[in-house]
């Protein structure tokens, strides 16, 4: 991290970080969208006017404001306006509906709720009314406005909880995750330090800004002074034109995004999908080593992958200076400020980027051990060089006849098969074995028929132990995925195939 970025990373609050960057490079762009460009100076000035408008509506320091908005310049302005006021904001993914949104509004006791109106065919305002939300206002292309002279002083410290993010809640009610300005700055600093970007780079946000990766990525922009393209709706090949027009040098988001870029590259081998692109980077889901090698070989760009979660937005990150082996097979290294401890195979974490717990005190007590380390539920180990290798989730360990089987080990091997585009391995209830191993495969276009015998023969040839071989194969048109980082929803596969016997 260069000297300027290092100094800025010590900012106490997000608003202080915005102000310090705006003073350094006021005329440089920070956010790009369509034909629009918002500068660092413009971000500070316009966010203050929005803050004044919100203040006139009754928003005060500590007021809880929920917002469910797409990835737009206006969304970033609203979020930083709330940071200027010292309000507590709870971002909601735009794809949330009555169940998830209603739960978040009730649990956070939000006093205001910003929505986009009708977005992508769904009326968010009507949903907010049905939920009985308080202080509903639309903030898609127009924002509250006022005279900044009415504003109180900005927050002076960044250790108070001012952010409530929500876990996916795929198997139970979502958890409200408590973050501070300092925890988000620490996470963004880890990302910035690892990627070694420069003011000449152009980044991209292909994910929902309401995801915890939103401020994580924006902190990086503020530290290094370069812009990012915001994609309100990311879809390939349609979004590629914007990437080319703005000269994006860094793209990605998660494993699914790498695969999408690679699929586009394969349509025109030898011609880069984005001529300026030099790096794919992301996290949020496992990365098969074979995918890394394919991206580097076929796209001619580097790929660095990291490890994060809602509770800790950035834990480790691969760096362009790492070896190919480490970039392919690990999640990168943690920064000095992140303590990683492996306890009985589980990854545990302590550091400034770790959340302050959950809205529910009982969940907080359960999540942290006696030394203050967060129990992640992820399994892994550290290499001698300090790189973290994840081997799966505790719930992804399949116990077949008393033997533990790693789903990820099988998935990584199957990604090498030419007839496998993506794969998820799950354990299904089995009266005789306890659990049986089921591989659910999404095939690439033009692939031939794939049978269980093909799969087991391939895995045997890869040296996989016989007791780990799948006993069931399901071929699907598309694996079920979440709406944020496109993670595969394994619980849906378990529900779908638990009653099948083959």
TrEMBL record:
Gene3D superfamilies: 3.30.300.30, N-terminal domain of ligase-like. PROSITE patterns: AMP_BINDING (PS00455). Belongs to the ATP-dependent AMP-binding enzyme family. GO terms for biological process: fatty acid metabolic process. Residues 409-481 form the AMP-binding enzyme C-terminal domain. This is Cyclohexanecarboxylate-CoA ligase. It holds the Pfam family AMP-binding. Residues 20-359 form the AMP-dependent synthetase/ligase domain. SUPFAM superfamilies: Acetyl-CoA synthetase-like. Keywords: Ligase. It comes from Streptomyces naganishii JCM 4654. GO terms for molecular function: medium-chain fatty acid-CoA ligase activity. PANTHER family: ACYL-COA SYNTHETASE, MEDIUM-CHAIN ACYL-COA LIGASE ACSF2, MITOCHONDRIAL.
């Amino acid at each position: 991290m260069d000297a300027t970025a290092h100094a800025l990373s010590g900012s106490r609050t997000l608003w202080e970080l915005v102000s310090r960057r705006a003073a350094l490079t006021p005329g440089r762009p920070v956010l790009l969208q369509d034909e629009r460009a918002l500068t660092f100076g413009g971000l500070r000035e316009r966010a203050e006017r929005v803050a004044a408008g919100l203040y006139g509506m009754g928003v005060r320091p500590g007021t809880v404001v929920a917002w469910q908005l797409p990835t737009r310049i206006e969304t970033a302005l609203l979020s930083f306006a709330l940071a200027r006021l010292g309000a507590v904001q709870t971002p909601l993914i735009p794809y949330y509906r009555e169940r998830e949104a209603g739960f978040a509004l009730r649990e956070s006791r939000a006093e205001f709720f910003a929505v986009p109106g009708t977005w992508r065919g769904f009326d968010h305002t009507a949903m907010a009314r049905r939920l009985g939300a308080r202080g509903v206002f639309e903030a898609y292309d127009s924002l509250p406005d006022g005279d900044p002279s009415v504003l109180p002083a900005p927050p002076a410290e960044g250790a108070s909880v001012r952010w409530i993010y929500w876990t996916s809640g795929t198997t139970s009610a979502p958890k409200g995750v408590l973050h501070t300005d300092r925890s988000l700055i620490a996470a963004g600093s880890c990302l910035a330090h690892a990627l070694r970007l420069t003011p000449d780079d152009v980044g991209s946000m292909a994910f929902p800004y309401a995801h915890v990766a939103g401020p994580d990525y924006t902190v990086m922009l503020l530290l290094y002074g370069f812009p990012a393209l915001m994609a309100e709706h990311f879809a390939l090949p349609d979004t590629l034109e914007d990437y080319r027009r703005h000269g994006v040098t860094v793209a990605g988001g998660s494993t699914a995004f790498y695969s999408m870029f690679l699929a586009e590259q394969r349509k025109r081998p030898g011609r880069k999908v984005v001529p300026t692109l030099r790096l794919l980077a992301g996290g949020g889901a496992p990365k098969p080593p074979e995918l890394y090698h394919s991206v580097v070989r076929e796209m001619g760009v580097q790929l660095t992958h990291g490890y994060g979660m809602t509770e800790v937005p950035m834990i480790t990150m691969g760096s362009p200076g790492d070896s190919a082996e480490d970039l392919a097979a690990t999640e990168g290294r943690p920064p000095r400020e992140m303590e990683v401890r492996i306890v009985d195979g589980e990854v545990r974490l302590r550091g400034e980027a770790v959340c302050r717990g959950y809205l529910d005190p009982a969940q907080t007590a359960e999540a942290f051990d006696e030394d203050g380390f967060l129990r992640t539920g992820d399994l892994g180990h550290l290499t001698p060089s300090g790189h973290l290798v994840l081997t799966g989730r505790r719930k992804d360990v399949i116990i077949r006849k008393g033997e533990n089987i790693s789903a990820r080990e099988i998935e990584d091997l199957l990604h090498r098969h030419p007839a496998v585009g993506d794969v998820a391995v799950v354990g299904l209830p089995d009266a005789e074995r306890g659990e049986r191993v089921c591989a659910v495969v999404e095939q690439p276009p033009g692939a031939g028929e794939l049978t269980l015998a093909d799969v087991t023969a391939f895995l045997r040839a890869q040296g996989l132990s016989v007791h780990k071989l799948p006993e069931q194969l399901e071929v699907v048109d598309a694996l079920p995925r979440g709406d944020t980082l496109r993670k595969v929803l394994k619980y849906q596969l378990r529900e779908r195939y638990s009653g099948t016997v083959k």
